[in-house]
Amino acid sequence: MRLTWVSVVFLAACVGDDVATSEQEMALTSGEELRGLVSSVYGADINRYVPKLVQQFYELKDHGDYYGFYTGAGHPGTYCGLRCQEHWQGIARLTYPPAARAQFLVGSSHDDGSRLAVVPTGSSDGLRLRGNQHSLTKRDWNTKPRSQQTMVHAEIIEPCLGSCMNHPGGMQTLGQYLFIGAEKIDDAGAGAKVFVYDTGGMGYNTHDPVQLWGIRLGTDGAAFAAVAKLAPLSGETESRVLLITAGNGSKTLTFNLSRLGHSITSSDFFGNPSTGSTYPEGTLTPSGAYPSYWTGLYQSMSLLVDDAGQLYLLGANKTESGGDDYLDLFELDVAVAATGSMSPDGAPNVTASVRRVAHKTMSCIPSIAETSSEGGQACDFSAASGTYVDPAGRLYFYATVHSDSAINGASTEWTRMMEFRPWNHVDNPSTSINETCSLFDAWVNLYDGPLVMNGYGTYIPFGLNSYMIDYLDHYQRDQGSFGTAYNFNDRVRSLQYCIPSGYKFRLFQHEDFGGASYDLPGWGGVDRRWWNSASGWSSGCFMTSTGNTCL
Fold first, then answer.
1. Cystine design at 118: which of 48, 153, 240, 488 (Cβ 3.0–4.6 Å)?
2. What is the pLDDT of residue 295?
3. Domains in the chain, ordered, with CATH?
4. Phi, psi (degrees; rounded to nearest 5) at 301
């Protein structure tokens, strides 16, 4: 069922002499819908569109891969105590320029000032990270991450010299520019700000993002900052940028449009530099009783564009009292206000409506993890989270726990995180063909339940524990025991795989490659198998198609 709510307040015209309202701006068509600018590639100030967005959302795996990172570079770490004021708040994986893709950014709240940190990913192609908590003797949730994922840079976003925005929220990149919403801990009256960083100079050996400007919002909060470049409106030849923030406990969305003729690198891009503030071009607030699915408190929201220019908001949340972690996908319609009025910042006032088109419950801890394991829970959607779209348009999601800790035998503190990926990360959603894999990206994914067909005719692992075996990482885990690697002995009910011609994966009934066997022949494309009950497979390995020896 698709539910819709609309509740809009827009500002009356109040254009002073200090705001230059061009004839081009006054020629706007009342009621014209704002559309995202569709690009098939990332650019300096634009994100690529997301093909088959709703389908990709439904086909995002609801169980993630373990991927942790260490505290370093002078970051004070996070401690989520009684009031949990110091904790991770936002995460953004970099997309542009290509050299910057080997890093992601995380934000954290602290009494003495919010912080931004840089972590290397080890993946410069911008594709799937894969897990980094593998061991020959331990399960992923009992293993510490690789040391390469240690912070290489950390800085205070806004120093606390009397007062500051020390509580950053969800963040999103627009090409090489990072937008971060920030509030003051326990002080809604202090208002909120958005800070913008330039990551264009970051690369393999340069890790310092450059803060360009910060601007005060005319709202009581900024739980997140979501951003997208728009197609030019009628009568305009220049694209505007749409910025969405959230106040009132994430229950009220605030819309800001950039000013024509102003650079994204300038503090007057959205507002008046003389006052250091901006006026909203519109707000959207749900009613108190309807719809029931909008609870507010979205920890992060990202603004996405599909192949038709339709705008979407993807939000992460957690039900109260330690309940479910979940994602909501909203179709967003924004239009020039019928009055044709302009805000004091010289941008058109807007109206807006949303409707939820998809919902997913996600799992931050596999049910097969031991309850005594400190590292079992690898994320919390009330902590840092963020959406990522890779260069081919594949949809991913990342989420962390609240704080770092020295567990799983680590001598220094590290943070647990999960990567939620497409079930078929080889497929390019921008094409109509089914892409093939090489040995370099060959994989076998084991599940503890049956696959189900969705409304798009795709078999997906809905709500299943899964053990992912990548050829590139197979040597990092115990091939002779699925139990040692992921507590998966005798659990396999179904599987999906992609192996090139000339190779296969052989399953064995018992540990240490004993008992009956079953071959998964490679032909380059994605295939699947299933059994009516737990199959009993407990070990396995990649082989050549004619061989009997593990690679």
1. 153
2. 66
3. 3-15+23-419 (no CATH), 436-544 (2.60.20.10)
4. -145, 140
Sign of the CA dihedral running 428, 429, 432, 434: positive
- Rounded to an integer, what distance in angstroms lies between the CA atom of residue 178 and that of residue 501? 42
pLDDT digits (tens, 9 = 90+) for 14-26: 333 333 344 344 4
- What one-character DSSP code corresponds to residue 144? P
Rounded CA separation 528/535 (Å)? 14
For 441, residues 6+ apart whose C-beta sits below 8 A from its C-beta are 426, 470, 471, 472, 498
β-strand pairing of 385-389 with 177-183: unpaired
Task: Compute the half-sphere exposure of residue 202: CA atoms within 13 Å on the CB side of its CA.
Answer: 32
d(CA 392, CA 41): 8
Contact between 503 and 543 (Cβ < 8 Å): yes
Half-sphere exposure of 284 (CA within 13 A, CB side): 22
pLDDT tens-place string over residues 193-232? 999 999 999 998 899 999 999 998 877 788 899 999 999 9
36 strand-pairing partners: 230
Q: Give, as one character, the DSSP assignment of residue 58.
A: H
For the chain, the straight-line distance linking the first and the last C-alpha, in angstroms and rounded, comes to: 49
What is the per-residue pLDDT across 140-185, written as a single tens digit (0 to 9) for each?
999 999 999 999 999 999 887 767 888 888 999 999 999 999 888 7
* Residue carrying the six token digits 């115990």: 478
Q: Copy the structure tokens of residue 277.
A: 């503030």
Q: How far apart are CA 443 and CA 435, in angstroms?
A: 14
Under DSSP, the state recorded for 484 is H
Q: Give the number of other CB atoms < 10 A from CB of residue 440.
A: 9
Q: Which residues contact 326 (CB under 8 A, 6 or more apart)?
A: 316, 317, 318, 319, 359, 360, 361, 362, 381
At 77, list the tokens: 């770490």
238 phi and psi angles, rounded to 5 deg: -115, 140
Q: What is the mean pLDDT of each run of 10 residues along the chain (551 residues)?
A: 37 34 51 96 97 98 96 83 72 94 88 88 89 95 95 90 80 97 78 93 93 88 93 93 87 91 93 79 71 74 97 90 87 86 81 92 94 89 95 97 92 95 95 92 96 95 96 94 94 96 97 96 96 87 97 95
Q: How far apart are CA 32 and CA 334, in angstroms?
A: 9
N residues, the chain: 551
DSSP of 394-431: -EEEEEE-SS-B--TT-SS-EE-EEEE-BSSSSS-TTS
- Determine the Cα–Cα distance for residues 461 and 469; give it in Å rounded to an integer: 15
- Report the mean per-residue pLDDT for the chain: 88
Please give the distance of CA 523 from its chain centroid, rounded to a whole number.
Answer: 32
| Beta-sheet pairing, 350-362 with 325-336 | antiparallel
Instruction: Write out the two tokens for 184.
Output: 């003051």
Cβ atoms within 10 Å, residue 239:
16
Cα separation, 356 vs 331, in Å, equals: 6
- Which token pair is 58? 């439904």
